[in-house]
C-alpha cells in the first residue's frame, strides 16, 4: 500500500488503531515500509514521508518502539514521524515521546477526544482547549478536524484552532494568547477529507490552493 501510494503521493501513516497487533507486527511491517520508501524515492526522485504509530500502554515500550523504527529507517529516519494516540494514551505519552526523541516530528492523533470535546457531551473541555494543550506539551502536529467539510463535527470558526497552533499570538474565544516564541504545532486537516474538499478548507484558512 505504501509503495503504490508513494508513486504519486508524499505522506502515508499508520492510523490510530495500528500499533503492534498480532496480525500486523511492527518487526514485520516496518522493514517492508522502509523497502517501499527506498524504492519509491529511487523511482520518483521525490522525498517520501511516513508516520509510525509508537503508541503503547507502557512508556518503556513506546521508547523501544521508537528506537526500533529509527534503527530500521537508518539514514531515512528524518523522513519518519512518530504518531502517538495522545487522547487515548494521555499527555504523558506525548511528553515521553518528545523528551526521548526531541528531533522527531511528533504526530498527535486525537482519536476518542469527542467523548469530552463534543458539544453534545455537555462535559469536559473544548477541542480548542485540547489543541492548545497539545502545543504546550510538545506535539509537532495535531489533527484539528475539517471545518465541516469532512466527516467530523465543526464549522468555519474552527479555523481559529489552526491559527492558535501555528501563530505566535492569536485570539481565542475569550482571551488573546501570546506564545512567547514557544514552538509551533502544525494543524492537520483530517477526517473524511478528499481532494475536492481540500479547496474549501484552504479558502477558509486563507491559504493558496
Automatic annotation (TrEMBL):
InterPro entries: RuBisCO (IPR033966), RuBisCo_large_chain_AS (IPR020878), RuBisCO_lsu_C (IPR000685), RuBisCO_lsu_C_sf (IPR036376). Keywords: Calvin cycle, Carbon dioxide fixation, Lyase, Monooxygenase, Oxidoreductase, Plastid. The keyword Oxidoreductase applies. It is an enzyme of class 4 (lyase). It comes from Polarella glacialis. This is ribulose-bisphosphate carboxylase. GO terms for biological process: reductive pentose-phosphate cycle. It holds the Pfam family RuBisCO_large. One of its GO terms (cellular component) is plastid. PROSITE patterns: RUBISCO_LARGE. It catalyses: 2 (2R)-3-phosphoglycerate + 2 H(+) = D-ribulose 1,5-bisphosphate + CO2 + H2O; D-ribulose 1,5-bisphosphate + O2 = 2-phosphoglycolate + (2R)-3-phosphoglycerate + 2 H(+).
Amino acid at each position: 500500500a505504501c509503495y503504490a501510494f508513494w508513486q504519486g503521493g508524499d505522506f502515508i501513516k499508520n492510523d490510530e488503531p495500528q500499533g503492534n497487533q498480532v496480525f500486523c507486527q511492527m518487526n514485520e511491517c516496518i522493514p517492508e515500509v522502509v523497502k517501499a520508501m527506498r524504492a519509491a524515492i529511487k523511482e520518483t526522485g521525490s522525498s517520501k514521508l511516513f508516520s509510525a504509530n509508537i503508541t503503547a500502554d507502557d512508556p518503556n515500550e513506546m521508547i523501544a518502539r521508537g528506537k526500533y523504527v529509527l534503527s530500521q529507517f537508518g539514514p531515512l529516519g528524518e523522513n519518519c514521524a512518530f504518531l502517538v494516540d495522545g487522547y487515548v494514551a494521555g499527555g504523558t505519552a506525548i511528553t515521553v515521546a518528545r523528551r526521548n526523541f526531541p528531533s522527531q516530528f511528533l504526530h498527535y492523533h486525537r482519536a476518542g477526544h469527542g467523548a469530552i470535546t463534543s458539544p453534545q457531551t455537555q462535559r469536559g473541555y473544548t477541542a480548542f482547549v485540547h489543541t492548545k494543550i497539545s502545543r504546550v506539551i510538545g506535539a509537532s502536529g495535531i489533527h484539528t478536524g475539517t471545518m465541516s467539510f469532512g466527516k467530523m463535527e465543526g464549522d468555519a470558526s474552527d479555523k481559529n484552532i489552526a491559527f492558535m497552533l501555528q501563530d505566535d499570538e492569536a485570539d481565542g474565544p475569550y482571551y488573546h494568547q501570546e506564545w512567547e516564541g514557544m514552538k509551533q504545532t502544525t494543524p492537520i486537516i483530517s477526517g473524511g477529507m478528499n481532494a475536492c474538499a481540500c479547496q474549501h478548507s484552504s479558502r477558509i484558512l486563507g491559504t493558496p490552493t
